[in-house]
Design a protein that fits this description.
SH3 type barrels; 5 domains; 5-stranded antiparallel β-sheet; 21 strands; 37% helix; 29% strand
């Protein structure tokens, strides 16, 4: 009777997991489907965050990149929202000086305003890369543009009084400008879709055409045309034949009243600039949409069929992990050894020293202790890195902290004196080690 009840309970649990996975799958398809269609096939189901893929600042953005606080932003003495020391006005041009630093799952950058010298930490989400919209001092008045993000429209570059709002992707024309204020150029924007007219920083808009293309749009050659090294002409770097497919990588850029796009051919991977009149839509968006819908439907059915097996394997794997966790917990020392206490107190003494070499020693010694701890609880490997790879977050709750501390230790070991280590950073790294040691009652 007990065995039957257990089987019934397992079956009910697996059915519940199956349902949850199916819901998650459908949700992911609904969320990611438009993005995948746009990125890989050029089917524009929806807009990206800024209409241009490389407009967003992310962890890979290089230092000294010029960015813009289009909507304005406060800045702080530290990468957190606890100590505000000022604010940057809307449209302020900034330069990335340090970062990114991640605090509570939010990335921060240290920026400086070149004109005033104001310097501080700002949230990454408040920044946009300058120059991605293809607009410059030579852009002609009357050029057609689109807004890269939802933003206020201002009475003037020096009169930050909102006269209305425009939505991301709104079409309009540039009727006056540019004027340089707070390090960035401003243009008078006249909306085609509403009656809003006002000033916007250049970083808030991009050159556009009636074609509606953006990055990753799929196009083809309208006729045989040369591919040039720069917009407007120059050295020929390739050839786009009629009907040959290509992907939009950037643009448009206006040269001599004509729009140019940066492309990559699908067949040969040749990259360069071609005039807009040499391109046209790939011509099968409607067909592709139908094919993709059918494939997604079939894929969903197949996925759901196999989902039961995946759930079963997941459940069994979790059961094995649970038993392994019990084994590891049983191997954890219950009483802190005095010798270990002495080593840790020496680490704390070194990191509190005024000597930078002591800070480095404290981190290196902590890494040795972490290696010994992982060996003691049963992880195998030639190096600490291999032992960390063998661990899971189910077994080691502070595994992320262990990885981060170990990576910084490796930088110190490999770069030596070239690695800049502050005492504040050293103490933060030691605390990462401490989180792991306290979890296993090692200190």
């Amino acid at each position: 009777m007990a065995a039957g009840e257990n089987t019934t309970s397992n079956t009910a649990f697996e059915d519940l997991m199956f349902t949850l996975f199916a819901i998650l799958l459908v949700g992911q398809m609904a969320q990611r489907g438009p993005e995948l269609l746009s990125k890989h096939l050029g089917i524009q189901v929806g807009d990206s965050q800024y209409l241009v893929d490389n407009a967003s600042v992310d962890e890979n953005t290089a230092l000294l990149t010029k960015v813009n606080a289009v909507l304005g932003t406060p800045y702080y003495a530290e990468p957190s929202g606890a100590n505000e020391i000022g604010s940057f006005s809307p449209g302020t041009s900034l330069v990335l000086m340090e970062g990114p630093e991640t605090v509570e799952k939010e990335r921060w950058w240290n920026v400086i305003e070149s004109e005033s010298g104001k310097n501080g930490w700002v949230r990454e989400s408040t920044l946009i890369v300058e120059g991605v919209g293809g607009i410059g001092p030579a852009t002609k008045l009357g050029s057609k543009v689109r807004t890269l993000l939802d933003t206020d429209v201002w009475k003037g570059p020096d009169e930050l009084v909102s006269v209305g709002k425009v939505a991301q992707g709104e079409w309009g024309i540039l009727t006056k400008g540019p004027q340089t204020v707070r390090g960035s150029r401003w243009w008078l924007f006249e909306s085609d879709e509403t009656d809003v007219t006002g000033w916007l920083p250049e970083a808030a808009v991009m050159l556009a055409s009636d074609r509606g293309w953006k990055e990753r749009s799929l196009v083809k050659g309208a006729q045989i045309t040369d591919i040039f090294e720069r917009a407007g002409g120059g050295r020929v770097v390739g050839l786009l034949t009629a009907e040959e497919k290509a992907i939009i990588l950037g643009g448009p850029v206006e040269v001599g009243g004509a729009l140019w796009w940066f492309i990559e051919t699908e067949e040969d991977g040749e990259q360069g600039w071609v005039p807009e009149n040499a391109l046209e839509d790939a011509g099968f968006k409607g067909l592709i949409k139908g094919v993709i819908a059918t494939v997604m439907l079939i894929g969903t059915i197949i996925t759901l069929v196999f989902l039961g097996g995946i759930v079963y394997v997941t459940i069994r794997t979790n059961q094995v992990r649970a038993r392994e966790t019990q084994r590891i917990q049983a191997a954890i020392p219950k009483v802190t050894e005095p010798y270990r206490n002495e080593r840790w107190e020496k680490v704390l003494k070194n990191v509190s020293s005024e000597n930078p070499s002591d800070w480095r020693f404290a981190i290196l010694e902590s890494d040795v202790m972490l290696d010994e701890l992982f060996t003691r609880v049963g992880y195998q490997g030639v190096s600490l890195g291999e032992k960390l790879k063998a661990a899971t977050r189910g077994d080691v709750k502070n595994l992320d902290a262990a990885w981060e501390a170990h990576k910084i230790r490796n930088q110190i070991a490999h770069e030596g004196g070239d690695y800049i280590l502050t005492q504040r950073e050293a103490k933060r790294v030691i605390e990462l080690y401490a989180q792991v040691f306290r979890e296993f009652q090692y200190i």
